[in-house]
Each structure stands twice: as structure tokens, then as C-alpha cells.
Amino acid sequence: MTYDLLCGLYYGEGSNADLTSPAGRRLLHVQTPLEKHVADALGRGLDVVLTGNPGDGKSHVAHMLEADGALRETDVYPDLSAGPNAAAVSRWLAARKAGRRFLLLGNEGPLVEFLEEARGVPGLEASVAEVRGQLRRLLVQRAADLPPPPALVSLVDLADRSVLIPEVIEAMLERVCSADFLPPMTRAVESSVGRNLVALKVPEVRRRLARVLCAAGRRRGEHVTFRQLWAAVAYAATAAKAASTLKQELYQDSVGLGTTPLDNLVSARAKGPLVEAVRAFCDPATTPDPDLDEQIWSTGQVTGDWLAEELPAQTPPAALWGDGERGEALRTFAQMKRAVALLHARGERLVAAIERRLRLPSDAPDNPLRRLVVRGLRHLYVSPDQERVAPPWLTEGVPLWVGFSYTDRPAEERPHVAVRSLAESDFEVQRPARAPWLADVLGPALEVAWLVHAESGISLRINPEMLGALAAASESSGPMTIPEPVQRFLVRLAGWDEGEEPLEVGAHSFAVVDRPRGVIEAAGRVQESASGAARYA
Amino acid sequence: MPSTRRLNADVAYRMLMGDSATTGLFEKAFGFRTSTTAFKAVHMMNDLTQALCGGAPEHGGDFLARVIRPENEEEGNSDAELRRDPRFGAAFAQAFPAHLGGHRIAALRSAAKLVLNFDKGVFAPGQQMTSPLATHYLLTGFEGFRRFRLGPYLASILTAEGREKLKSLFSSNRDPITRAFRPLLLAAPLVDRQPAGARAPLSRFDGALGERLSLLLAQPLSKPALLRKFALGASLGLVLKILGAGREGGRPLLLATAAQEGEHKPLREAAVMSFRAGVEALERKLAAMAVEHPLFADLSKLKRSGDPAVEVRAGLPPVDSMLELLGAMRRGAADSAGDVYWPDAFAVGLGRKAGCVLPKKEAAGWGVHLALNPEMIELLVLMAVPGGARPVPWGDLWRRLRDELGIVVGANAAADAEALRAACEGVSLEKLTENAATALGFGVRLGVARRLPDSGAEAGGDL
């Protein structure tokens, strides 16, 4: 194996199972429950369809099973995109005729087209119908929407898989810290990449980096492919630096501060969803730790034990600041904190703090989560300060705030009116439900939940970003952007409410705010009589 | 033989803008007038409501105008004066019982102004300048802009179900705005000061736009949100209609950048070119119509040699000659006859207010182009896919919108580039794809679209 292969993982090259040698695949292979699940399903007489995004690891799984001898009784169709659907159909029929199992691999788009074309093929009708019944229904909002367990074919959608499991990432990091991946140069161990690989030999360093990557991916709240994860791991170790760059670093004696795995991940040059999530949400440099911060700032050193090679003392950032080198002071401070987070005993607190501040839907049970979300929805329109002078009905449940204007001005600038609040008990929290037979195979579900209005079925998707916005609404009274999905949620709820049974004659409440989180301009009641006349009461 | 012809500037002006005896070319081309840049969606919706419901209450919105203008003492709008007012005293006393007290009544009147006049369509009572943000026909008012006939045009393109739905919305009192301001709904017989005239023939584009707007009205949203989206959709539709009037079937072909004001727009230049191509096609159409206009024969009649005139080259075919005339008039050659309000300027003004035309303000060197912000993307999805239906593949949705309404974002990059070729050669496929990805990002953010594994996406319906 070569350093180029390691760098190539960042560019998605070395992680393409169809383009990698068996030795390379073996070296990069990280055992997950998926391989055993597929082998067991085939062993039980089921055919298996593996689908997902490019880079999710379909081909890798098939290659590894084949190498382990688990596919001797199975015909493999390796890529639906590589040939006409008719070829896949005839291979499946042939396997069936020969009494062999069939393992079909394809990205989801081609699979949808294939299923459409194969639905009427004699001999495959029931199998195709079963796959269609499972497609996009193996991870759903309501358990009642899950399909029955497979009888003929088991679909495994790797787009539903989470690879953000600390143990999996630790295993990947363990793979790359081998001497095989050192850059091809003299004094390779002294280069920035060499030092990173040596540091990653320490289990605690791997564990912390894995936790940071997990936290970033979970906070991002969207699917991460194996290929994207490999890209982040490779970039953390190497920053995709060419050997010539590494030599230059050595020559200039610029190895050290600023070249640790976390420095690499937060670099503006790094591309990819996971590294960008680390930069946005999980940079230890932006995580406060008063004692540590004070020590780094004033002394440029950290007392206590280093887990790997000790970082030499730096010019104290305070001294740099005093000399007018403010940019350098801030940079040194940030880089030292990143080094400490991974490589020093005191870094555990920093990593734990990053994990604590994430605010994930899975952190709270249903009822507390519902309370937090409902309260946040209220506070997006009436701030905690204004709530103190608001009528009681605006301080409970979810008031249906609606704005009205034909101009292109943002919702935050428009007046809003509410005449009704839906009770908190009208809503329920739903969470992703995974097909039970895949529960232990595909890892934890995405960090998402839904606040669902039970009667109408209208729901608001709560991902970490939304949860953060709702929590922030309750923690301050300053101006805030109203998340667009919240606006849409409320106008859909209000639309449902307007379509319900006819209004009863009588009095009803109303309130007007000059803008969300602004001033309550007016609130009171409107009294309507049977004659149609109305007055403010 | 002279190398130029002198054409009567006054006649040319009347030919374009119309007069008491003749319909101008602009109005003939669209079926409505465009001679202002002050027109707002709130005027359009006030007109449309009256076109559908049969007019405004006979008080013409004066009650509301006086309630929300307490500071205008010369109008006698104080609480005490309004209670004594022979026209509205009883209505005011009914809505605002005296026991509420002056402070509370002032807050209620202020809230009414804040909400119902947020778009600044209501001025002094009795002036025919009363276009409130009306969620109910009893909140509409008399408005001089109704003479432009935008409301009847929009009413004419909606499907029967669309017209019925809109009419029922304006008669319903279920929404939060109507309920909050219910005491200000003063029932009175309806008076239509601008009865609908003869319907102009509708193009294929008109039919498509009407169907899309009608589909929008069936979406299960709160009434104020639905009316806002309808107004934005109608504004966008009017921009498209004007820019498409010179093309076959009335359908434009406009590249729209997916971006918000101030953001980088990789396709801006191409979008500007497609916008200009629409204006040029419109001018060719107007030139062709000009030779059929009743005043065409009078263009050459100049009573005195000093009469204001526009010079065009002699010996040109009539349509080319008219094209030159239009070009000269754009450069101000007939300004002595009056201000020419060009339809594209009307479209730009209306589009800017709706947020679908950028830049928002005139700035040197900045070309005007169609732009879709997140709300516009949401709107187009709602116009294209019925609520509760199965989501539509992202590419199919934009193919439909391109073929029916002439909006291109690049979701089908190769086909879109080919369609745009006549207007702007060699649009980058990469940038088109990037533009469509931004549009998809907007849709996903608003929850009307979702990405599927394997780079696919779908939008609308039961999402």
C-alpha cells in the first residue's frame, strides 16, 4: 500500500471497491454487522438486493463476502448501471431456475427503473412486488408503515445505514495508522502526516477523533456514506499533502502546531460534508474551557500529560497579542486547543463539551422533546420577554401565527396575527422506525424526529439544526430568523384549522404582533352576534 | 429621395398608449394596461376580488381608511368625531364600544393599520386609492388602478374551479386575519365601478398560467398564506406573460437564477440575455401589430413642419419601420407627446416587488433578470403538483414548468441549454446544473422537495 492510496481516499479514489485491489479492500475493510446479515439472509434462502448511494459500500460488501466464500451458492449481479435491465432480469431468472440465490447491486435510481421494467416478468412478479414494497419503507416515520418481513427477497438500503459509530471510525483510524501508509520519504515519521499516524496509534487519540467525527455527522443530520467517512479520515491524517509538500515542511521546520488531525479537518481547504460539519459544529477551538483557555493564553503551555508526543511550549498568545500580532495570537491559541483536544489528557473535557452542546433529538425522551419544541415554536413569535405581558392563551400550546403581505419582505418583518392556539397534547413526537430485521444491522437512525399534529397528520421535521433554533428561541429575546419549515408548518396547520367545522357564534381571542418576537400591538376578544355584527370586547 | 421619414410623434404615442377613441398597442397585446410603475400586488388583488365578487361595498373602503388614519385630524378621524359621523358613526360605535377606553381603541386601530395597510395601498378616504390587504370582499375598496384591468385578466385565465375557490376564500371569515378584524367588515351592497369589458383572446400560455394558479388555490394552506402565494404567482405570471408576448403561444423562455439578493449568481449574464431576448421579441410583436393599428395610416400625417416627429429610415418594409419607430421612442424621441410606459418596465417593477426580478434597484451595469428565491421555488412546486398527490421527479417538474410557463433553471441541463440556444448561445451545462442544485436546496429547505439516494430528487404533493 502507498501513501498515494491514503491521500486518494480523500478524493474518493481508493474507496471505490470496483477500482481497488483485493489487498487494498482487505486493508480498508472494517467489519460491520451488514456482511453477516447478507450472508445469513442468503443462507436462509432469500435473494438480496443491496441499494443506496454511490459510496455507501454495496460493492465492497459483495467483494468481501465473495472473498470469504460466502457467495458460493449465489449469483451476483454487480451493478445495475453497467448493463441493460433485461440482462439483470435474465440473470435473476437463470439463478432462480438453477436453484441458486441472487444478489443484486444497484444505486437507487437504476433500481427503481429496473423494478418498473421487471414487474411483469413471469417468475419474478412476487419478488419484484416484495422489493417494491420495501423500497423507501425500511426506515419510516410511523412503525405502521413498515413492510412485513421479507419472504422472498430482502432489500437492504444502505442510504438508511449510519456509519457514524465510534467503534467503526476507530477501526478505520486503526487501519490507517499502519506504517504502510507513511509517505515515501526519508524522515517520514517526522513529517506532519507521520506524526499524525504515530499519534493515531494511541487508542485514546483514535477514540477522541472518532467521537468528534461522530458528533459532527450527527449534528449535520444527513446521511454520510462510507466513502465520505473515508475521505474525512484520510484528510484528518494527511490534509491530502503531496510528499513534496511534506518535505518542504520538514525543510522549513514547520511541522507541529497547526498540522494535527483536527487542524486539518477545520481547514477551509477541506471539502466534503463531514469535514465541513466538523468545521461548522465541532471545532474544539470554539469550545470554552476557562481554566485551560487561561493557561494556554497566558503561558503557551498545558500542564498535565500528553498522550502522544509532547507539544513544545509556544510563545504565549497573550505575548503575541501584546506585541500587536493579534492574528498570530488567535491562531496559536486555536491550534493549541485542537492539539490538546486530541493529544492531551485535558482534551477529554473538550471533546465531552462538544458532544454535550450538540442538542440532538435523540437526547430527549418524547415528552420533554415535545415540550421543548412546542415552547420554541411559541417563542419564535412571542419572545420570552414579551410572553410576560401576553394573554395566557398565547403562552400555552402552539399559537397559529399567520402573516399577510404581498410584498417581498421576510416573515421576520411582517406583522402576524393569531386567533387560536393548539394544545400541546394535540401533538405527538414521532421518531424514525427501522424495520426490525435491520435494526442491529444498519446502525442508529438519522438524528431526526417529527412533531406531528395527531388529528391532521401535519408534521414538522426536527433535525439538530431545527432543534438548535427552537432552543435558542426560548433562551433569548433578541431578533431571530423564523426557520422556513416552521412558517410552512404553521400555515398548513392554520389551513387545516380553517377547514374544520363551522365557527360558532360567540367570542374569540386574537392577538397581533408587529413582527415575530416584536411587540404585541393588540390582543383581546372579538364578540360576534348571531346577526353577524361584531365588536371588540 | 430623402433618406429618412418623419412620423407624427403624437400619433405614435397614442398608438402605443391608446386614447379615448382607440385601444393602444400595449393593451391590445396583453388585454390589460401597463401604464404605470407604481402598481403593486395589493392593487391587483383588490381588483381581482372585485372582478370575482362583483365590486366593493358601496362605502368603497372609506370606513377602513378612516379607522386606520386616526392621525389625520383634517379627515375627522378621531374617536369622538367618528362616533358622531353620520356615515360611519354607528359602525364605529358597534366595532369599538366606548367602554374599551381611548387607549385600547387606539391600540386596536393601530393594529388594524399595521396589518391591513402593511403594503401601503390605502390613502385618504374618497380618493379611489383604497386597496387594503383584504382577506374578505367586505374589506375591499374603490381604486383607480382598476382601470388597468389586471383583475379581470387574471379572473379570465383561472379555471372555473379556481374562480370559485378564490371567490369562496374572499367570502369566508375563517382565517385569522378576517377573524381578528371582523368588527371592521362593514356589510353594504356591492358597487362595481369597473365592470369587466370584453374578454381578450387567451393564448396557450394564459391557459397554462391559469391552470397552475388554480392548482395553487387548491393547496391546503391558511387563507392569508394562500392569497400571498397566489399574488406572488400572479405577479410572476404577469412578468412571464409580458416577456412571452412576442413568442409563439405567448410562452416566454427565461433563464431564472436560483439565488437571493446579494448572493453569487453564476448564470446572471445568461439570465439577463434571455430576459433581453424576451423584450426584443415583444418589440417585434408590437411592430407587427402596429401596421394593423387604426392609427398606423395617420403616422405620416404631419400638419406643420414643426410638429413633433420621430425620424425613421425611409424605404424600410412597414414592420421594420415600426421597429425603428419603437426603438427611437425608447430613446425618448417622442417624449414631447407624453411619457411612454413600456410594458417591460411594468413587468420589472411588479417583479421586483414580488421578488422574482433582480436587481431590486436600478444599478449601473446590472442587467435585469428573472430570479427565484426559496419562496418562489416553493410557489412553483405548489403550482405544479397538487397537494396530497404523489411527489413528482424534480426533472419532470421543471420540464413541465419550462414547457408550459417558459421558466428554465437547468434541472434538465442539456435540454434546457438547447432550449435557451436562441436567446443565449453556449450556456454552461455545469453552471445550469449548479443553478438547479441551488433551486433544489431551496425546495429541500422549505420541505417541498427531497433528495433521493443516487442524486435523484422529487418535489411537491404529499411531502
Keywords:
heterodimer; A: 537 residues; alpha+beta; five-stranded antiparallel beta sheet; 22 helices; 12% strand; flat; B: 463 residues; four-stranded mixed beta sheet; 19 helices; 11 strands
How many runs of DSSP E, i.e. beta strands of chain B? 11
Characterize the biggest β-sheet of chain B: 4 strands, mixed
- What kind of oligomer do you see? heterodimer
Gross morphology of chain B is globular
Beta-strand fraction estimate of chain B: 5-15%
Overall strand count of chain A: 16
Number of helices of chain B: 19
Largest Cβ-defined interface: A-B, 57 and 62 residues
Structural class of chain A: alpha+beta
Residue windows where pLDDT falls under 50 for at least 5 positions of chain B: none
Describe the overall structure.
The complex is a heterodimer of chains A (537) and B (463). Chain A is an alpha+beta fold. Helix content of chain A is 44%, strand content 12%. Chain A contains 22 helices and 16 strands. Chain A has helices spanning 3-10, 22-28, 33-43, 58-67, 85-97, 108-118, 125-134, 166-176, 192-199, 203-220, 226-238, 243-252, 261-266, 273-281, 290-299, 317-322, 326-343, 347-356, 366-381, 384-387, 464-475, 484-498; strands at residues 47-51, 74-77, 101-105, 139-140, 153-157, 398-399, 402-403, 416-418, 421-422, 427-430, 433-434, 449-453, 459-462, 507-513, 520-528, 534-536. In chain A, the strands form 5 sheets. In chain A, strands 7-8-14-15-16 form a 5-stranded antiparallel sheet. A 4-stranded parallel sheet of chain A has the order 2-3-1-5, with helices on both faces. Chain A has a 3-stranded antiparallel sheet with strand order 10-12-13. The longest helix of chain A is centred in the middle third of the chain and has 18 residues, at 203-220. Chain A is flat and about 90 Å long. Chain B is of the alpha+beta class. Chain B has a 4-stranded mixed sheet. In chain B, a hairpin with a 5-residue loop joins strand 10 and strand 11 (457-459). In chain B, helix 12 (223-244) packs across helix 16 and helix 13 packs across helix 14 (318-330). The longest helix of chain B has 23 residues, at 268-290. The model of chain B has no long low-confidence stretch (mean pLDDT 93). Chains A and B meet through helix 6, strand 7, helix 22, strand 14 and strand 15 of A and helix 3, helix 7, helix 10, helix 12 and helix 15 of B.
